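ligand=zinc ion
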Amino acid sequence: MIAVISAGGKGTRLGSLTREIPKALIPVAGREILARQLDELAASGASKVWLLTGHLGEAIEEFVRSRPVPVETEILRESEPLGTAGGLAALAGKIHEPFIFVYGDLVFSVDFTRMMRRHLECGASITLLAHPNSHPQDSDLIVAESSGLVRRLLGKKEPRQTYYANLVNAGAYILSPEVVRVVLPGLRSDFEKEIVPQFIEAGRVQAYRTSEYIKDMGTPERLDQVARDLTSGVVAARRLSRRQRAVFLDRDGTINRYVELLHRSEDLELLPGAAAAIRSLNASPYLCFVVSNQPVVARNLCSIEEVEETHRRLETLLGAEGAYLDDIRFCPHHPDSGYPGENPAYKIKCACRKPGTGMIEELAAAYNVDLSRSWMVGDTSMDIQTAVNAGMRSILVASGMRESPAKYAARPELHCADLAEAVDRLLGQAEMQ
Ligand SMILES: [Zn+2]
């Protein structure tokens, strides 16, 4: 595998830190960002890394000459600043296969072999690394279809819909060689504003969603945060080559106030303490997913698009409180057909409807989750039965339906008042292990 690091940026927001050393050589928790990037790329199987340099490029040249690096490197230095894309033109004729493209100010721990596999499977020209974050309201967003096809990139200052999916462009890509060919040599250009939109227009850009750690060193505050995350081990732990632990959450009655057959986005209201509980999970070793049965589609109360709008509202409300979901799955089906007004296409027996385990197994495969070390939290016996069927531990919360008698026989490991208590209890158990 081949990788390209764009390390020519000036890093003006970091002030005096980047006056004498390029951003890529700023030490974070005792090791230069570039050294960390080369380690990570080598761990993903990169055999060669091209470094596009500019501002203070001689320092980067000196660095790779004088230090042992884990992978072969070659430097292409631009004589004048060419923006985030201009330097790519120098690779024309040199790269003939899809390659990793990352910015030099990113600290990450990403299994790029998974991302490359996805790029090759979907046949896109550009695959961009997408993730939810704790501050979507001031981040560049990706607008994508559920298939991952990217419809547009939305800058942080551009007007957005009231409710938006928490999907942020991280600044790491897989590019096919045709992308290099559209960059004009010697001209300044911006990758996200000028190059990516050409390929979006042609339907050639895919979002690859991951829960792995990736953050830019744009400001001194972020630099401090990333140093803390490196030291605590969070950065390495989230790499998807490692087995993950997860908490699977039911939606209605667990995260948001229970409304029978909720089908209008405006009826979704977070339960007190739910956002703070999810924020605690985000800072813990656990990934956090929602798995929800939404038979409202099969009953024709709303469309798939309307369920997705409800989830955009959910992610927007959580984002406003600094919380995010690593991913969401829902089942639109219902097995019993023959009712007036139903949507027959969705009246089927499926593997995804809880207590079936289809949604959980799909997420477990996508995020390398060890289900035996994971939890399900929900407000019905069906959630608990799902946990048992999937081999997970479970917590029943009393904040939702309070069904009586219970429809399924499975018993939860713990009973809690609400999600806040459930998260406290399961994080307390994780500490003891
Ligand atoms: Zn289903």
